[in-house]
Amino acid sequence: MNKTPLPSLDSIERNWYVVDAADQRLGRLASEIAMILRGKNKPIFTPHMDTGDFVVVVNAEKVVVTGKKRTQKLYRRHSGRPGGMKTETFAKLQDRMPERIIETAVRGMLPKNSLGRQLFTKLKVYPGPSHPHESQKPQEVKINTIPGEN
Questions:
Q1: Long-range contacts, stretch 129-132, CB < 8 angstroms, 24+ apart
Q2: How far apart are CA 99 and CA 96, in angstroms?
Q3: Nearest to 54 by CA among 131, 113, 145
Q4: Contact, 50 vs 17, CB < 8 A?
Q5: pLDDT in tens for each of the 150 residues of the chain?
Q6: DSSP secondary structure string for all residues of 70-125
Q7: 8 A C-beta contact, residue 91 and residue 71
Q8: Residues 138, 26, 105, 111: is their CA dihedral positive or negative?
Q9: Residue-level pLDDT at 150
Q10: Which domains are present in the chain?
């Protein structure tokens, strides 16, 4: 009887990637990042294991959305107290904490369980062009989220 081999924890090689979010569409960018975090771009992908890589996102403040989402898309959070719901538009959140926009989009595309929480810890988002992960020697990933452009 043949069995599909499972990758051992020692054999999983973790790479570091840098993604530049400047002038990229939010949803398309987030889905590509989620695939790298999950490990779906590797031949050893296993749905119930963490086989993915680390992703560093820079220039999060320059991510764009289409249509009227800049003024109409709402981000909600709750303090846990009665009446503790806070809402904020995309534009206000981008001025205040631009990294939270990408984090929220990517978190929504990961599994909703302990594996998803473990995968999310490998995402590092920074609002500007610099990041403190140079010693990991991250590779640059070119993601084209605008159809028709090269």
A1: 129/20, 129/58, 129/59, 130/58, 131/18, 131/56, 131/58
A2: 9
A3: 131
A4: no
A5: 788 889 998 989 999 999 999 999 999 999 999 999 999 999 999 999 999 999 999 999 999 999 999 999 999 999 999 999 999 999 999 999 999 999 999 999 999 999 999 999 999 999 999 999 999 999 999 988 777 665
A6: HHH-EEEEE-SSTT-EEEEEHHHHHHH-HHHHHHHHHHTTS-SSHHHHHHHTTEEE
A7: yes
A8: negative
A9: 52
A10: 16-64+97-141 (3.90.1180.10)
Cβ pair 40, 50 in contact under 8 A: no
Cα gap 150→144, rounded to integer Å: 7
Query: What was the pLDDT predicted at 3?
Result: 84
Q: Token pair for residue 39?
A: 């490990």
In this structure, are residues 51 and 122 in contact, taking their beta carbons and an 8 Å threshold? no
